[in-house]
Amino acid sequence: MKRGSGILLHISSLPSPYGIGTLGKAAYDFVDDLHAAKQSYWQVLPCMPTGYADSPYSGTSAFAYNPYFIDFDFLAEDGLLKKSDYSHLNFGKDETYVDYEALFHLKNDVLKKAYQPGIEKYSHEFAAFKFENSGWLFDYALFVVLKKHFHYLPYQQWDACIVDREPAAIMEMTQRYGQEIEIVQFTQFLYERQWFALKNYANEKGIQLIGDIPIYVSQDSAETWAHPEYFVKDGSVAGTPPDYFCDEGQLWGNPLYDWDYMREHGYEWWVRRMQRSLHLYDILRIDHFRGFEAYFKIPKGGAPKDGQWVKGPGGALFDAIKTALPMPPIIAEDLGAIDDNVKGFLDYCGFPGLKVLQFAFDEQDSFYLPHNYPRNSVVYTGTHDNDTTLHWFQTVQPETRKFLEDYIGRATESDVVGKLIRLAMMSVADISIIPMQDILGLGGEARMNYPSRALGNWKWRMKKGEFGQEQIKRLRTETEIYGRAGNGC
């Protein structure tokens, strides 16, 4: 990957008058700002539809898009909506936070109004979209419709004949809800139209889009319902042992893959997932990459203390992926418990791993310190799971702060964020990615996620105009100084 730098900002965090960031004008303005700052990359979080707790890392589908990101104003420009369909609605009072409850009750009802005029305008394109995505689209749309029919209960609590996908029961529901199913499919089509229009615009400006996929899907997802054969049957779930983020470990609750089944079928599902993801993004970050070498298995009803590491598919999975996708542009999120086996697996795959500066100063010769970086890596001040760098500095242990200042010189609350951004930019790592919260120098109120907290995450939003000319000019200057200027403007 070419030397460059970029910003981590999820679609949900863009400014918008409709409760959440969208693929609308603010996204294009942000691309223009990245271009002006001579950035090469825009990294987003997973864009799949979310379920309970609104986490993009526990989506209800591995293939579908989050309809919350569809822009109403663009649909109105296309003649699919009227401004009066949505301008009077209250999508939340605080422009700095997402109100997911308001979106849940309002957004899809507005999108339904685009269906009839949209079907008439895009009939041929929509038919092609359904054909190209037939491997997942119908199951997902049916899952969404059934979810509403069963009052949003987890699918495990639906009628047994539907849980078991008995053909007669599925046929009855398909006939009863035919139009509702097609509305969900059409909504996915609308997202894809807006996404690729934005992606093409970004690429023309010299900006590559870095996407992100979680290793797992939600326990309550279209995949677990439609394809239970992909998952283990003993009720064990994913999590982590005690680590930097949580002293007691984490019980994620995601179902674990049946890797024996996957191997017997040539890892076909994973190959399709990667093909689709790399169609959507220029570069793909895979979350919890170490889980492919060995995954942490927590028994049904157990706690993280009861878990154990179990061997995963390892290099065989990525051999299959590389056969279908030679030299895939993948970033391996290799944080967490990394032993020699994981290091060997990462070396075998050859993908760049992550270096996080907030982790660098807890020990004298940490591999997160810039002088230990290989070029084939991606450096962050912090990730979506970290605190903002300012609040991290305000709360860090005294011995960590002392080592930080031994390494970079005296630091204060007014200059430490800028110093760490420059440290990332000057490093030999091929790619430097800075969260927008750090670009803006924000405190703990702007933190995106607390890994040990189930609710209240993924809400932060940037105010309109907050990423202004002063920040753009400073970022452009540092990008040029450290040889990361990406688009020749």
TrEMBL record:
One of its GO terms (biological process) is carbohydrate metabolic process. It catalyses: Transfers a segment of a (1->4)-alpha-D-glucan to a new position in an acceptor, which may be glucose or a (1->4)-alpha-D-glucan. SUPFAM superfamilies: (Trans)glycosidases. Its EC number is 2.4.1.25. Keywords: Carbohydrate metabolism, Glycosyltransferase, Transferase. It holds the Pfam family Glyco_hydro_77. GO terms for molecular function: 4-alpha-glucanotransferase activity. PANTHER family: 4-ALPHA-GLUCANOTRANSFERASE DPE1, CHLOROPLASTIC/AMYLOPLASTIC (PTHR32438), 4-ALPHA-GLUCANOTRANSFERASE DPE1, CHLOROPLASTIC_AMYLOPLASTIC (PTHR32438:SF5). Belongs to the disproportionating enzyme family. This is 4-alpha-glucanotransferase. It comes from Christensenella minuta. The lineage of its organism: Bacteria, Bacillati, Bacillota, Clostridia, Christensenellales.
